[in-house]
Amino acid sequence: MIPSPSFNNISFFQPPAFLMIGIPGLEAVHGWISIPFSSMYTVALAGNCLILLAVRRTPSLHQPMYYFLSMLALTDVGLTLSTMPTTLAVLWFDHRLIGFNACLAQMFFLHSFSVVESSVLLAMSFDRFVAISNPLRYASVLTDSVIIRIGVVIVARATLSLLPVPFLLKRLNFCPNKTLLSHSFCFHPDVMRRACADITINILYGLYVVVSTAGVDSLLIVLSYTFILCTVLGLASPRERIRALNTCVSHILAVLVFFIPVIGVSMIHRFGRHLPPIVHALVAYVYLVVPPVLNPIIYSVKSRPIREAILWVLRRKCQS
């Protein structure tokens, strides 16, 4: 447990560590709960690494669409690795302590990868828009150098958006008796509410980050698909319409898998404070764990080139 000396006459306090909790109210069955969590983390890491290997080793997949898919897979690996160590440490070994600075670092990477994922999904919608509305210029618009610049902008955007968050938290005076987090990882809305200080700036900046990243990205994705739909409806052949829309199905599913939990977790943390802690925990796990698990499944099922490339990689591995 965290040492509890006398805190009288201390005007500013930052805890040496926070105490994490797995799933509130289900601590007695954490051992059993660890089984599905371990399975999901394994599927997320294996599936996304297979996609990265498949795209790298299959020359026919060296196209803008699959480069963006590789960005999404790499982001999902990062998002998974951000929460996996502390979550499994709590569920497997009941190791609940995380240092204050380590907590801020985990929170920074966790939310940064989330912003990167939102940005990559936006870039993928732009890719689909160009491919469908102007297929003859597709290769000349989305060149390798353009894709690299898009990737750099995405990483810079996430880093600059989240960089102030740890420093805004370090300025706060925390409550000595409020060091218990309600998740098995450091989540910004959870950490800032452990403070015994005015957190208005933190709330407003957190809201700004959500609106300026996921909010703007979701609107631009909807706008992209509005233009795509107008283009598709203008095609003469019904078969061409269906074929054009089929190229978007995987991306639409990935967008829904990511943004629905984002909306849910944002609404619950702002308007659902009266809800039981287990609801907050489960929604956060869905937001952070489920998309990295489902994305490789969606793309391997719906995209024949990806499926065939993954099977080819697996056969090569088995033969060697």
Automatic annotation (TrEMBL):
PROSITE patterns: G_PROTEIN_RECEP_F1_1, G_PROTEIN_RECEP_F1_2. It comes from the Eukaryota. Pfam families: 7tm_4. It is found in: Cell membrane; Membrane. Keywords: Cell membrane, G-protein coupled receptor, Membrane, Olfaction, Receptor, Sensory transduction, Transducer, Transmembrane, Transmembrane helix. The chain crosses the membrane at residues 12-33, 39-55, 67-93, 105-126, 146-169, 218-236, 248-272, 278-298. The keyword Membrane applies. Its main location: membrane. InterPro entries: GPCR_Rhodpsn, GPCR_Rhodpsn_7TM, Olfact_rcpt, OR51/52/56-like. It is a multi-pass membrane protein. Residues 47-299 form the G-protein coupled receptors family 1 profile domain. Belongs to the G-protein coupled receptor 1 family. Putative odorant or sperm cell receptor. PANTHER family: OLFACTORY RECEPTOR, OLFACTORY RECEPTOR 56B1-RELATED. This is Olfactory receptor.
